Records
---
Amino acid sequence: MEAVVQMELIPSAKEEDIQRTIYLLRYELPQWESSVKVLKKIKEYTPEQLAKLESYQNKIELVETAISTILDKEARDIIKHRYLKTDRRKDTISFFGSIMSESTIDRRIDKGLLSVANTLKDCGII
């Protein structure tokens, strides 16, 4: 008798995908945003510059969309604060600490990161 292997129609993010998402939010997204600002100051683009500008803008838009599609509003707000407004967990804990516990904030971060990672994986970014 053969073993039955069930495959996922849409594979969910694994731990390495979540780690890649964290890296993307912390390091790549700010770099893309900085590059877009610099490229927008150029009057005439070379084909390579135009391709980079469009690529970075598309990636930024996909990341913003991935964050905005987090269903849990608290998780979405925490992810926005943690990765878009500040780079320090301590600042996020201080900001949300008056309305929820540190462990709840950490659970919301985990939930939000999983959602973002799933969306970015579906879009082919990670």
---
Amino acid sequence: MTLKKFATVDDLVAFAAQEIVAQVAHALAAHGRVNLALSGGSTPAPLYRRLAALALPWAQTHVYWADERCVPPDDDGSNYKLARETLLDHVPIPPENVHRVRGELSPEAAAQDYVKQLRESAEHGRAFPRLTAAILGMGSDGHTASLFPGSPVDITEPAAAVTADYDGRPAKRVTLTPAVLNESELVLFLVTGASKAGALTAVLEGPHLPQKWPAQRIQANHGRVLWLADQAAASQLTIND
């Protein structure tokens, strides 16, 4: 695990983009293919706009979602819609390389469909793709993707349907599980804002309590985990970057 602190969100986003570009180049050279997992939220949006302006190998890139709400793809709460408007509509990625969670289905059906998509688009012999980079956030309760406090820790399927109530907004969701996320070559946590300071300190400096702080479940088995935090989110940390 590596922690980097930034004075501004713009600085954080610029660094994240550089890391993704480098990891993409490595994956393309090593495997001839790139697998990206995207998330929703306010912090990834400027990162997606920055990536859209770069000459990345989109024809060889497959895009997945770390999690999705069970809403139609044109709903304002859709993580797919956010990524489409800020990134995918602006780059020459083949439509068949975009593997969205079909949030218009029931949660269980959407999860089953996503597991099928993961399997069918994976490299030969794998149950799911090995992610080149997974872009994740973290909530003030320590959740990441749609892995929330109290959710089962023994999920073995690549994706699962969950029901969560965050910030008073109950929602049915589909999430990638640690089985997939922990196989990533690079995990980028983007954490901004003072409301995340307590959770960030607990996750990085507190005891290992993954049932309470689900972000602690993400421990890359063979890759890197980078925590990128702005000044406000990092304000309670005692460790230095």
